[in-house]
C-alpha cells in the first residue's frame, strides 16, 4: 500500500519500468467491482422492502446531506 503515494517515476526506479501492481480488470479488480455491486444491490433491495416510514426518513436524511441528487 505504500506505493499508493509514489509517483510513476519512483515506482519505475524501485521495481523497474513496466511494473504493474495488479492488472486492470484482473481477478482482484473484478472481485472488488463485484463486491461493490453486491453491496449496492443489497442496499437497494433493503430500501425497496423497508416500510414507507423508513424510506421517508432515509430520503430526508440523504436530501440534507446531498441536496443536488434529489
Mean of all residue-level pLDDT scores: 79
The gyration radius over C-alpha positions equals 20 Å
The backbone outline, from C-alpha atoms, is elongated
Strand residue content: under 5%
How is the biggest beta sheet arranged? none
Structural class: mainly alpha
The DSSP helix count reads 3
Helix percent band: 55-70%
**Element string (H = helix, E = strand):** HHH
Q: N- to C-terminal separation?
A: 36 Å
- What's the β-strand tally? 0
Note poorly predicted spans: none
Characteristic terms for this protein:
mainly alpha, 70 residues
Molecular structure report:
The protein has 70 residues and is mostly helical. The protein is 64% helix and 0% strand. The model has no long low-confidence stretch (mean pLDDT 79). The chain is elongated.
Short description:
The protein has helices spanning 8-15, 27-49, 52-65. It has 70 residues and is mostly helical.
List the helices and strands and how they pair.
Elements: H1 8-15, H2 27-49, H3 52-65
Amino acid at each position: 500500500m505504500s506505493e499508493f503515494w509514489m509517483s510513476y517515476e519512483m515506482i519505475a526506479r524501485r521495481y523497474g519500468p513496466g511494473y504493474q501492481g495488479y492488472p486492470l480488470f484482473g481477478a482482484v479488480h473484478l472481485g472488488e467491482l463485484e463486491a461493490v455491486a453486491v453491496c449496492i444491490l443489497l442496499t437497494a433491495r433493503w430500501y425497496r422492502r423497508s416500510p414507507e416510514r423508513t424510506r421517508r426518513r432515509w430520503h430526508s436524511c440523504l436530501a440534507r446531506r446531498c441536496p443536488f441528487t434529489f
